[in-house]
Amino acid sequence: MEVPCVRVRPQDGEATRSALAARDLVDGDHEITVEEGWLYVPVTEASVAANAGYDVVAHDVAARRGQLMPADVLGEEPSYERLGDIAIVDEEDPDRARAVADAIVESDLPVESVLNRASKVKGELRVRDWEVLAGDTRTVHREYGYEYVLDLATVYFSPRLATERHRVARQVDAGERAFDMFAGVGPFVIPFAGRGATCVGTDLNGAAIEFLLENAERNGVADRVTAVARDVREVATDYEAWADRLVMNLPHSADAFLDTAVALAGDDCVVHYYDIQHDEDPFGPGERAIRDAAGSSYEVRVENRHVVRSYAPHEENVCLDVRLTR
């Protein structure tokens, strides 16, 4: 059957496969194939691979033989999400949750733990409760060549935003000063620093900041990363007019921090402002809030209006890339 594949010359095959595997993009359900002087590596996310610069084509490759999948055990295809070596399910029926977990564990998937969502994201620290069906809540997640140690019991992390984080990171130049106001375990800070930026990340969650520091060491960028376990509003006076780039990924309430963002912004600063709004006007409320906060101090230019994903019926998770020029 035809599936999305990265096409390379055979002599570049192993290096390409390794690079794709580091990003968790290799489709293990299908065989790597050589045909007419080209090697085809099946990938799980065609758009992510293409954005990373690979030649992605549809090609007819065989299903991988001998691999036991959860559907083979369960008799149907279960719904689950992968984060590192954790499989995440969302099952209300405890018997169904146990059956899905058992099928995943029995399969050949490289999974050590299975977690069932037991609550929505809640509280200031944006964590949720989990039912541990196998293993534990700690893992190492790999994304675009970087590794993140995290524990879902104590921090928030969404693998679904990998493409968006990469989109923003690609805009960063060496020598920039970047500030992530709600940094978590560092999925913006670490790749920014990897591109040569000097970075500051703040977060109310002390556990997330500990992981951010560990991840900075793990990825070889600790010398360019400062992490602070405090409310960004309490830290802003130490970095007044400092930032060339700001990340505001707190989409339900980022507008409450716009005065702080303006205080942090340097003379020429790009702000990545995340919001969740009704699909009738997903960008307008955020843009108006930014202009109000900037007042007469800055010229405001919206450089990009970007839909990240659908959040709920008639609600969009969006990002405004806005340049503030004093």
TrEMBL record:
It comes from the Archaea. It holds the Pfam family TRM5-TYW2_MTfase. GO terms for biological process: tRNA N1-guanine methylation. Keywords: Cytoplasm, Methyltransferase, S-adenosyl-L-methionine, Transferase, tRNA processing. One of its GO terms (cellular component) is cytoplasm. This is SAM-dependent methyltransferase. Residues 80-326 form the SAM-dependent methyltransferase TRM5/TYW2-type domain. InterPro entries: MeTrfase_TRM5/TYW2, SAM-dependent_MTases_sf, TRM5-TYW2-like_MTfase, TRM5/TYW2-like_N, Trm5a/b_N. PANTHER family: TRNA (GUANINE(37)-N1)-METHYLTRANSFERASE, TRNA METHYLTRANSFERASE. GO terms for molecular function: tRNA methyltransferase activity.
